[in-house]
Amino acid sequence: MLWGPLMSHNQILRLSTLLDKSDPIERLRERMLQRAGNESYTSIGHKTATHPETVRRYLSVGVPSVRFVQSFADAFSVSAEWLLLGRGCMNREEIVRTSIGRATVEQLMQALAERLGTQERFLRELVEKAPPQAPKPRSLPARRFRGASNYTQGT
């Protein structure tokens, strides 16, 4: 009996992904498709800076790259935790509203202080990394415009 060529490991993984709905990649795909709704591969590609054929492959049989998942989450304002694990709120805005609504004044002030501290460190690093400023060139004396009478002949 003749057997066809052996399947590669990737082909076996793809086939098992299609057959096994408990696969985490398949669940990730389902959540991506749920969030994208009726958007075309071209539209998703524009939003994620990904070629539409690559989008089609990722959303049908392929394993999405980390960069694509991140771009998708950013483009569709989706929580990474929901996208990857199916936990928590789908929309980032919903997470913020829920978190702020549950937080105490002390927690909000602490979060604000931490954020300001992070911004301050970031700005200091930028200043330290910035090239030294070159001295300003000496300015030339300004020429004065004396009006049209200087250009008339015979005066």
Explain what the structure shows.
The protein has 155 residues and is mostly helical. The protein has two domains: 8-90, 434 Repressor (Amino-terminal Domain), CATH 1.10.260; 93-129. It contains eight helices and no strands. The chain is extended, with a radius of gyration of 30 Å. The model has no long low-confidence stretch (mean pLDDT 78).
- The total number of structural domains is 2
How much strand? Answer: under 5%
CATH superfamily of the largest domain: lambda repressor-like DNA-binding domains
Which stretches are low in confidence, meaning pLDDT under 50 for 5 or more residues running? none
What is the rounded Rg? 30 Å
Whole-number mean pLDDT:
78
Return the CATH architecture of the largest domain.
Orthogonal Bundle
Largest sheet: none
> Do you know the CATH topology of the largest domain?
434 Repressor (Amino-terminal Domain)
**SSE run:** HHHHHHHH
| Helix share, percent | 55-70%
Number of helices: 8
> In whole angstroms, how far apart are the ends?
114 Å
CATH class of the largest domain: Mainly Alpha
Beta strands, count: 0
